[in-house]
Model the fold of this input.
Amino acid sequence: MEQDRRRFIQQSLALATGPMFVPRPAWGANDRLSYGVIGTGGRGRFLSRNFQKLGAQCAAVSDVYEPNLEKAQADAPEAKSYSDYHELLRQSGIDAVVIATPDHQHYPCLLAALDAGKDVYLEKPMSHSLEESAKIVEAVRRTKQIVQVGMQRRSAEPVIKGKQLVDSGILGKITMVKPQWNWNVAKELDNSPLAGKLDWQRFLGPARDHVMEPMRFRYWRYFWDYSGGNMTDQGTHLMDVVQWFTNVGPPRSAISYGQVAKMIGSETPDVFCAVFEYPGFMATWTLNYANSYENGWSIQFQGDKGTMIIDEAGFRIWTEPWKDNREPVQRLDAAVPIESHIQNFLDCVKSRQEPNAPVEVGASAVAGPHLANLAFHEHRQVYLSADGKIS
Done:
């Protein structure tokens, strides 16, 4: 276990090296990528529609819940459907797969896809634990496959331009970063019977056995057996930007507090705050699903020369002292699209260049949130050393 963690940290800190190139003949100009989708819930279908919009062909879909399969086939009538993703991977003519399952299935699905020689677009968070992160990086690097982790900010123009401005030194010395996410969506979990057939054992997969409860499937993200909660789900996106903009790897330590405020039935908190220690600065990651003030996500970078706020509408920069400079000196109004990240994956499948969010980036991005969940469960500050040891 310690060896896995040490390898994970070493690989994560090396992610800033240039893009790799994996030799393979480029596709012809008229070729279309043929892909399958493993996990056709709302996110999987959303991704599939955007893959098709960009010219890829959906050839197969797989899910443990029959209504999800039916909806996916409505979007791609020619696609074959499977309840077992291993059968999808045996279908001939599939170049790549999109994995959009619950978090606990990411690792086994990815391993099976790699064994089948498929390129992979893997939804975030990449892993269900720090140990899985290390194993995923190692498994991918044993192959020549292209794997893109679904962190679309890595391919978004406003975020890339924001990164360039921060690198220019416009903010000065950054001492505090404040990612946050507010949505007033928390409510008691619905445990009424599911409509349609569910293969409960296939849903559980590697998770511990548990009596079937509809809410555990409907809201899998709010149960520790299947996810890291919103700490890793939303936190992967935002902590990645924090680390990317400040040119650091995973945090040195984390402490976390949270509660289930309104989402009765949930195991994972719907209101929380995590504090991360980095070299030279600290970050506070807060989420409140019981309030919609400044609705959505944002990240505030505070430097001694200026402040940047980046969110789903773009970014703004103010210079110090703020009380005398309340109008932004730089701004860019632009949304964060999913299409550019998918297009980057499609381009890399053809060129065999590394994508914008390879597995090392995925591992580094989720490291802090995984560390914060450990701190939450153990009611203490948890430390991650440079050689990967947890203390």
